[in-house]
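Quick one: structure tokens for this chain, please?
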Amino acid sequence: MNKELQSLKIPTGCKINKNEFTTYNPEIEYTEEKNLFYLWEDLLQIEFEHSHLIIDLGWYGEISSNDGEFRILVVENENWEEPLKLVNSKSQKIITSELDKILMEIKNTGKVKASA
């Protein structure tokens, strides 16, 4: 299997700590083998040092039954217990769209509106 990374609009001024977020969509392409190959809790982490924000994306749930979802957390000052924003979706396309919106918001304003 080939891991094709998802294209993202990453703004300048950030640090990519990890990027293994692929185009694989378990909502429509599911097999247990593919889930084991493509999905885990640490898929993507982007750090904005100037605003002390971290975007963290992972898959949470049961790999074998495909009962899970992607989760984006946006945290400030490494406060993982109280994220500024939390977005969940089973769809890779929806989570990518939400991630792009968050990245654009940070690019344009240097912050993100709290919604968690």
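The two ends are 36 Å apart (CA to CA).
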